[in-house]
C-alpha cells in the first residue's frame, strides 16, 4: 500500500453521490457486506447486513453507554442501530453531504436525534478534539481512505484505553496475475485502496499506535455478498439503467464485475485499542 494510490476525499464523495441511489435500490440502506451463517443460510440481505452490524455492536462493549464516533457512516443505519441497542451517544461522519442529510432525517424519524447526530467531515481531518471518544468505528470505509493516515486520525480522537472496531477487505492469499489485475481494476472503479494481507493489517495497527485485540477473518460468511450483488444487478440491469440514466453505467458495471468473486478477496473484522 502506498499513500499515492489511496483515493482522495473528493473522489469518494463524487462516487457516493451517484452510488447512494443505486446501492439503496439494489442492496438496501446498510452500505456493507452481509454476514451469512453458512452456504445454506437463506437470510435476506437486510437480516445479513444487520447481523454484521450486531457483531460490531457486541465488540464495542457499550452496555454502560459511552461516546462513539462512526467514521464513514453511510446513511447512518448502523449508528442508529447501535443507539437502539445501547445507551451510547453516537456521532457519525461522512464526506458526502447527501448521506449526512438523510442520516439526520432518519435520526429524527426514529426519535434518536438527542443521542445520535451526523456531521459532514473528512476522515483524514476530523473536526474533534483529542481523546473525546470511547469507541471509534470504521465500518467498511477504511478501504476508501489512506489507511495509515485515517487510523492515526482515529487514534487521536480516541481516549486512552478506548477501542476501535473496523471492518475492511482482506487479501487471503496470492492471486494469479490475471486475478490480481482484475481485482486492481475493480478497486480503482470502487475508489478503494489496494488490499492488505492479515500481516499488513497487524503492522498497520501497530504502526498507528494501537494494540490489536482481535483479528477475525469472516470471509467465509461475507463472500455470499458479491454473488447476491452480481445476481441482482444482472437481473435488473435494464430497469436500473432506465431509472437512473447513463450516469450509473460505470457503477452497475463495477457491481457486476466478476472480479468480486476472486476467492482470495476476503473480509476482516478487527478490534484494537489505544493503549491506556
Ligand atoms: N459504514 C456505513 C457506510 C459504508 S460505505 C455502513 O456500513 O453502512 C463507506 C462510507 O465511507 C461512505 O459513507 C463514504 O461516504 C465514507 N467515506 C469515504 N471516504 C471518506 C472520507 N475521506 N471521509 C469520510 N467519509 C468517507
Task: Please give a quick description of this structure.
This protein is of the alpha/beta class and 276 residues long.
Layout of strands and helices, then pairs:
Elements: H1 9-26, H2 45-60, E1 67-71, H3 77-85, E2 89-94, H4 97-109, E3 116-120, E4 133-139, H5 147-157, E5 158-171, H6 177-189, H7 198-207, E6 211-217, H8 219-222, H9 224-244, H10 249-255, E7 265-273
Parallel strand pairs: 1-2, 1-4, 2-3, 4-5
Antiparallel strand pairs: 5-7, 6-7
Helix pairs in contact: 2-3
Bound molecules: S-adenosyl-L-homocysteine.
Describe what you observe in this structure.
The protein is of the alpha/beta class. The protein contains ten helices and seven strands. A seven-stranded mixed sheet has the order 3-2-1-4-5-7-6, sandwiched between helices. Helix 4 links the parallel strand 2 and strand 3. Helix 2 crosses helix 3. The longest helix is centred in the C-terminal third of the chain and has 21 residues. The radius of gyration is 18 Å and the shape is globular. The structure holds S-adenosyl-L-homocysteine. S-adenosyl-L-homocysteine (SAH) binds next to helix 1, helix 3 and strand 2. S-adenosyl-L-homocysteine binds next to helix 1, helix 3 and strand 2.
Amino acid at each position: 500500500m502506498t499513500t499515492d494510490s489511496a483515493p482522495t476525499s473528493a473522489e469518494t464523495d463524487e462516487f457516493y453521490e451517484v452510488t447512494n441511489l443505486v446501492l439503496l435500490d439494489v442492496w438496501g440502506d446498510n452500505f456493507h457486506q452481509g454476514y451469512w451463517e453458512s452456504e445454506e443460510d437463506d437470510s435476506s440481505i437486510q437480516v445479513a447486513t444487520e447481523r454484521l452490524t450486531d457483531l460490531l455492536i457486541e465488540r464495542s462493549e457499550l452496555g454502560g453507554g459511552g461516546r462513539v464516533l462512526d467514521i464513514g457512516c453511510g446513511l447512518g443505519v448502523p449508528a442508529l442501530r447501535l443507539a437502539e441497542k445501547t445507551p451510547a451517544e453516537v456521532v457519525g461522519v461522512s464526506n458526502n453531504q447527501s448521506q449526512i442529510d438523510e442520516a439526520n432525517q432518519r435520526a429524527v424519524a426514529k426519535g434518536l436525534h438527542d443521542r445520535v447526530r451526523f456531521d459532514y467531515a473528512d476522515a483524514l481531518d476530523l473536526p474533534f478534539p483529542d481523546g473525546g471518544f470511547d469507541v471509534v468505528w470504521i465500518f467498511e470505509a477504511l478501504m476508501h481512505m489512506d489507511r495509515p493516515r485515517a487510523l492515526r486520525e482515529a487514534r487521536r480522537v480516541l481516549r486512552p484505553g478506548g477501542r476501535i472496531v473496523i471492518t475492511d477487505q482482506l487479501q487471503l492469499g496470492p492471486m494469479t496475475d490475471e486475478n490480481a489485475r482484475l481485482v486492481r481494476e475493480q478497486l480503482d472503479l470502487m475508489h478503494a485502496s489496494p488490499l492488505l494481507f492479515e500481516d499488513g493489517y497487524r503492522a498497520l495497527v501497530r504502526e498507528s499506535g494501537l494494540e490489536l485485540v482481535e483479528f477475525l477473518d469472516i470471509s467465509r460468511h461475507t463472500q455470499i455478498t458479491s454473488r447476491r450483488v452480481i445476481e441482482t444487478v444482472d437481473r435488473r440491469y435494464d430497469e436500473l439503467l432506465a431509472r437512473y440514466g447513463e450516469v450509473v453505467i460505470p457503477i452497475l458495471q463495477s457491481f457486476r464485475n466478476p472480479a468480486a468473486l476472486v476467492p482470495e478477496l476476503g473480509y476482516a473484522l478487527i478490534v484494537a485499542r489505544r493503549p491506556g
